[in-house]
Amino acid sequence: MDAQFARLLEFAELPNTVLQVAPFSMGARRPFNLPLYILTLPDRSLMSYAESAHRGHLERESTFVLPVLTAYHQLQAEALSQAASVAVIEQVRKGIS
């Protein structure tokens, strides 16, 4: 687990990345419980890919992708800042070492 936290901290230091932690204390305001990817294609169209333990689902229809994108932006706005996220990871990391 410590190696995973160390990798996240390395990731946060990269110049072209943003790391934000969405704490479980957000409760119902946390819109996603499973991995979700929003893909921007070369023609600027969007697709979403959601994954569960049993299958993956690729969505290309914008009427389904846009609400996912909106929920993602809301999550991003409520998640911790990068500095606060790094601090949380460092704090948890101290507790497991």
The N- and C-terminal alpha carbons lie at a distance of 10 Å
β-strand percent reads 15-25%
Q: What are the secondary-structure elements, in order, as H or E? A: HEEEHH
> Can you count the beta strands?
3
Helical percentage: 40-55%
Largest sheet: 3 strands, antiparallel
Runs in which pLDDT lies below 50 for 5 or more consecutive residues are none
Can you tell me the overall shape?
Answer: globular
What's the tally of helices? Answer: 3
Number of domains: 2
Strand order of the largest sheet: 1-2-3
From the alpha-carbon coordinates, what is the Rg to the nearest angstrom? 15 Å
Give average pLDDT, whole number: 90
Which structural class do the helices and strands define?
alpha+beta
How does this structure look, described?
The chain has 97 residues and is an alpha+beta fold. It has two domains: 1-21 and 81-97; 26-79, no CATH class. Helices cover 45% and strands 15% of the residues. It has helices at residues 2-13, 62-78, 82-96, and strands spanning 36-40, 46-51, 56-59. The protein is globular. It starts with a helix and ends with a helix.
